[in-house]
Design brief:
There is one protein chain. By secondary structure, the chain is α/β, with parallel strands linked by helices. The protein has one domain: Rossmann fold (3-Layer(aba) Sandwich), CATH 3.40.50.150. Helices cover 35% and strands 22% of the residues. The chain is built from 12 helices and 8 strands. Helix 7 links the parallel strand 4 and strand 5. The longest helix has 17 residues. The termini are far apart.
């Protein structure tokens, strides 16, 4: 039986609430990227942030799949929105770029993450970084507010990706842009992965085809779309075996198709209008 969008969102909320409440050491000990174990899959895709200006270890839960702020072309004084801001890591790095004259708004639908991010911001004394509780399909932000939007491994967790992209278009100023790191597919995932709730919360089975992802961005009125970075995501065999038979694991590993992390850039036109469907923005 197919899981409803509401149930999937609640699953993600519960999983990431658990992560927010764990000590960082526990998170690191349970993630495959850090130790090679297979009990959790949250940061098998994570990139290293530690050398970036604005990095804060308390805000780094290892949940990303790229470094969108590195490519986001943030300028001093910009207003930046971070979709799915977690404990605040990308927001704080964005703040290092936008400076004291800019503003960063982080949005997350997990209250435990919002609480953790606000605590981190208070410790750092950042008065121009705020975190708002809400869905990224319907952000608690006015129209035409942001110069830049960033997001790191979040849209793949949202069942209705089209709604998120539409809302990014709404909150960006005309001429604004986004840089988003996300997980996409080339070819088809085996059913055992695609339908697994654990893998959904781990950012994998909620991913859609790369071409479909890029087409959604285009259909919603964005222009100058480009891929800033792309890398293959290797899922360890012991994780695959939790979801697939030995034969399916062998078939999956031998295929050219796979799971990829991409960082996508796109701009909202200077004279922008809301898009009403797949044909009206061509």
């Amino acid at each position: 039986m197919e899981t409803s969008e509401k149930d999937l969102k609640e699953l993600v909320r519960q999983k990431y609430s658990e992560i927010a409440l764990q000590d960082k050491e526990d998170n690191q000990a349970s993630c495959c990227g850090a130790t090679g174990c297979s009990t959790e899959v949250y940061n098998i895709m994570s990139d290293d942030y530690s050398q970036m200006e604005g990095y804060n270890a308390d805000a780094d839960l290892g949940l990303g799949c790229g470094l969108p702020t590195q490519f986001a072309k943030i300028k001093k004084g910009d207003v930046v929105i971070d979709l799915g801001s977690g404990a605040g890591n990308d927001a704080f790095i964005a703040r290092a770029e936008t400076g004291e004259t800019g503003k960063v708004i982080g949005i997350d639908f997990t209250q435990a993450m919002i609480d953790k991010a606000r605590t981190n911001a208070e410790k750092l004394g950042f008065n121009n970084v705020e975190f708002r509780f809400g869905d990224i399909e319907n952000m608690p932000v006015s129209d035409n507010v942001a110069d830049v939007a960033v997001s790191n491994c979040v849209l793949n967790l949202v069942p209705n990706k089209d709604a998120v992209i539409k809302d990014i278009f709404r909150v960006l100023k005309p001429g604004g842009h986004f840089s988003i790191s996300d997980v996409v597919l080339i070819g088809n995932l085996p059913d055992g992965l695609r339908h697994s709730a654990e893998m959904y919360a781990g950012c994998v089975s909620g991913a859609i085809q790369k071409q479909a992802y890029l087409e959604l961005i285009k259909q919603n009125g964005f222009q100058n779309i480009s891929i800033q970075k792309e890398k293959v995501i290797d899922i360890p065999a012991d994780i695959l075996k939790d979801h697939l038979s030995d034969e399916e694991v062998a078939q999956y590993q031998s295929k050219e198709a796979g799971i990829f992390s991409i960082t996508v850039y796109a701009e909202k036109p200077v004279e922008a209008k809301a898009c009403c469907g797949p044909d009206c923005c061509n």
